[in-house]
Amino acid sequence: MASPKTLEIVTATVPVLEEHGVAITTVFYKNMFNEHPELLDIFNETNQKLGRQQTALAMTVLAAAKHLDKLATLLPQVTQISHKHRALQILPEHYPIVGKHLIGAIKEVLGEAANDDIIHAWTEAYDEIASVFIQIEHGMYEAAMWQGFALFKITKKEAVATDIAAFTVVPVDKSENNKGNDLANAQEIDLSKLTLTAGQYITVKTDPKDSDHIALRHYSLCSASTDTGIQFAVRRDNRNEYHGLVSNYMHDQLEVGDTVLLSAPAGDFAINQGLVQQNEIPLVLMSAGVGVTPVLSMLEAQVLANPKRPIIWVYACQNATHHAFSDQVEALLEQAETVEKYIFYFESGQILDETWLATLPKPADIYVCGSMPFMESMIDGLVALDHGVDSVHYEPFGPKMSLGG
Question: What is the pLDDT of residue 243?
Fold first, then answer.
């Protein structure tokens, strides 16, 4: 527990660091990568260039600092981030490196304003925050279905929209795993013993020729079933003048028979199991673009568990050619007894906005997934319409932007 003096200083200086937060984390990343270039293998290069990672880190540290005397209240948000850390294989030994360069960046940006008392307090605060993450992540590593990155073989690759490919993979046996892939963790993985949760994601580890670094990316599971293998989807990322390193590699260079490295499924974006068997509160599955992937697995799980529950399916995308998994969704919806389906094509002027959101019933159990702008719009709209925070669940594609206020 942080000392009373530390709590007092941190609380008093949070507004100053909020003002300079992104500047501090920008300096932090620059200095850390200069001294530890191997860490570039962990961080998403595109998010770095767009400034998303810097913003996410600043908001995370500051939000945690605001709640330093009651970090337990942030457990759900800390758990979300810890899932990402475990999937990326961020280990306890990484935290002192981050702490050193984060405190150093505070000194560099604030200059003389960062006196010894402030630096000592923020060092103690960071150590307190880091210890919480390390403790939670320790349990996640122990519970993971396999350790590190294991080798899987692609058994199916299918275009499910113009820019989205669905992959099915199965474990490579231990003897073959040992042959010529020094990035893989040789181990036996029995598909029949894996228990996947709808809404989870896997993490792919690649070594693209166009990059000097290992590249890691999260991709959501299309299904919680392992009958044919582990299934996940990848959208080709060529928007906003960025050429997605891993997504284009997987679309253009990986085919059936090739192998790919995966860390064990992670994430806590899951259906409220307490509501699955009831038939009064409708399940609302709302997504845009490739955000359909985790909610597709939720739809499958709900229909298999209780087809009597009312389902409202809401999907938005650019146009019909970008409409992902349409056949699979239709087949699953046909198994449910009460269904409402709404499709929005942006190019046709069909807008999913607060006016439409006002038509949703209350109460409802709502799950939302898509790009950050889509997420922000939907969540803001739902909250403004008095859908309680406990009934709106989400998984943004990108760095977690905040631990909450």
Answer: 77
